Amino acid sequence: MKNINFLFVLLFGLSLGLTSCEDFLEENVKDQISVDYIYTTPAGLEVGVNALYNQMRFYNLPSGDNSDLWANVFFMVATDLGLHRTWNTPYGTGHNPQSFTGSKWIQGYKIIDRCSAIITSARSIPMDENAKRKLVAQARVIRGELYLDLKQMYGGILIDTIPTTPENINDPVEYKVASDADVYKLIDGDLDYAIANLPFKVDPGRYGQGVARHIRGKSALWQEDWAGAAAQFDAIINDGTHGLVPLVDVWGQNGNHKESLFTYQKDFLLGPIDDLAGGGGSWLSSVFTHRTYELNASELIQDVAYGGQALGWFYPNNYLKSLYDQTNDLRFKTYYYSDNYQDYKINVPGHPRFGQPITNPAIAAPNGNYRAWHWSLKKYHDTEKLPMTSNSYKDYMYYRLAETYLLASEAHHNLGNDTKALAYLNKVRRRGYTGNPESTVTTFDLTAWTLNNYLDESARELAFENNRWFLLKRLGLLVERQNLYFRSSPSGTLAGEVPLRMTPAMVNMPIPQSQIDLMGKPAGFNVGYN
Fold first, then answer.
1. What's the rounded Cα separation, in Å, for the pair 239 and 178?
2. If you write DSSP's letter for every residue of 94-144 in order, what string do you get?
3. What element of type H or E holds 42?
4. CB contact at 8 A, 153 and 104
5. What's the burial of 161, exposed, middle or buried (CB within 10 Å: 0-12/13-18/19+)?
6. What are the residue ranges of helices labelled H in 327-435?
7. Spans of the chain below 50 pLDDT
8. 468 in Cβ contact with 90 (< 8 Å)
9. What pairs with residue 33 in β-bridges?
10. Half-sphere exposure in the Cβ direction for 523 (13 Å, CA)
11. With contact defined as beta carbons under 8 Å apart, do 314 and 77 qualify?
12. How far apart (Å, rounded) are the C-alpha atoms in residues 372 and 375?
């Protein structure tokens, strides 16, 4: 029985633009590849897997200003660490099944369907078994990752491993919420297969064993399987393929360094739209950056060093700022644009004070201006972005080892091993204070593992990296902490900051009403929204 065919329009051809394999693009380029070729031949199977990477890049790093971007930005900022100024308002009047973007639900199930098609068809394709297992393993990592994503986001979800085909697209449909046990059995089965069949060392932009274990460890944490989580995270750390890099390199221009477990690849020359191999221009480098060039036109013009074209839609908030030792923690100046005006120099050619600090914004704009001047995020800074565009083609690191260390710390604490838990926590912390990933300086070490110490260190290291919302939800703290600290300032002033209330139902994202209607409004979905 086909369970969720309402979500899909079967694609009878895949554009070559959906593959990220550059070598393939250099061969005989055709406009379309038949489904028969993809699902019956070794080369076609590889093309299909390549297409999954492009679809995942669109899922997690879409180009432009649209609901797909909002679907990702929401989880990066709508936590206890964020401040909203404009654009979409988290937890506002649009946070409901009728209005909230359905991008993650619809795109997620679309990609899952294609993963299942590859996994199923591979069984009958005659080819080298080792090569086949590696291709299938990549499809199964993606499917397991997406099901974990959907489970974390929506709570009650559907599961289905039968790919949509012309033969079953009109089969009777049964829509019901899958049990937690069934969901995690599917997730863990996919990831365990991938762990057994993928190496740690892979080419940039490919899923390896490190990613599979990292996601598998997260799944174990959601199930409170502390030993299982610790084993997965320890395996990544102890293997040695991945390692922490110097602090200045973490969010530098090269996203394909040793700390990266997985980085989405971007290339303007192979783009510049999402359907092509290079992908479209991402706006992340502009979304979180203040517009310093608007402070005083006689002193400042757009400069890539200061973020270039910026949007200033969301910022880190004062609560997050209070968590940093601003004197000694190097992350404060490495991960963020400074709000000390003396760090910004007059850059208008011919200005008599060229190269000297800009005029104090507190004097130039005494009421404050959150659009032009605010403490803002530098992690997605792109030194190669053209000054007058919001589009960035910088590679985007999505999973990194610092998070592995922090999650491993939590797992070992719950196993009663605070010695190891602190060692992992302080490994990341020492790098933050010294810049050196191999530092043995103990001056700023934490001496006790507490939940607050753990959450604060995780915030300092991983803020605005698509993990805080999920961490707080898993720990049952999301509503409480978001309501305490998340702020909105539509007036653009400190005095105009207000809290945005999150209701308990909002710990699960609203499934699009259009999808609920197509399912016949079955019970168990969108609980608390109706």
1. 35
2. T-STTTS--HHHHHHHHHHHHHHHHHHHHTT--S-HHHHHHHHHHHHHHHH
3. helix 42-60
4. yes
5. middle
6. 331-334, 361-364, 401-414, 418-434
7. 1, 3-32
8. no
9. 14
10. 0
11. yes
12. 10
Distance CA 213, CA 233 (A): 7
What three-state secondary structure class fits 34? strand
CA 29 – CA 42 distance, rounded (Å): 18
pLDDT tens-digit map of 138-148:
999 999 999 99
Does residue 155 come out as left (phi exceeding 0), alpha (psi in the -120 to 50 range) or beta?
Answer: left
Q: Are 330 and 316 in contact (CB under 8 A)?
A: no
The HSE-up count of residue 146 (CA atoms within 13 Å, CB side) is: 31
408 in Cβ contact with 329 (< 8 Å): no
Peptide bond into 204 cis (omega under 30): no
Q: Per residue in 79-134, pLDDT tens? A: 999 999 999 999 999 999 999 999 999 999 999 999 999 999 999 999 999 999 99
Query: From CA 393, how far away is CA 367, in angstroms rounded?
Result: 36
As a whole number of angstroms, the distance between CA 268 and CA 278 comes to 6
Beta bridge partners of residue 316, listed in sequence order = 82
Give 228-236's long-range contacts (Cβ < 8 A, gap of 24+).
229/407, 229/408, 229/410, 229/411, 230/408, 230/411, 230/412, 230/415, 233/404, 233/405, 233/407, 233/408, 233/411, 234/408, 236/210, 236/261, 236/401, 236/404
Conformation bin of residue 438: beta by default, left when phi > 0, alpha when psi is -120 to 50:
alpha
Main-chain phi, psi angles of 484, to 5 degrees = -75, -40
Which residue type, as a one-letter code, is found at position 292?
T
C-alpha closest to that of 203 among 20, 70, 339, 69: 20
Q: What is the pTM of this model?
A: 0.93
* Cβ neighbours of residue 327 closer than 8 Å, sequence gap 6 or more: none
pLDDT digits 0-9 by tens, 343-358 = 999 999 999 999 999 9
**Residue among 13, 118, 114, 5 nearest 58 (CA):** 114
In DSSP notation, 453-521 reads HHHHHHHHHHTTSS-HHHHHHHTT-HHHHHHHH-EE-TTSSSTT-EE----GGGGSPPPPHHHHHHTT-
Q: Find where tokens 């004197």 sit.
A: 327
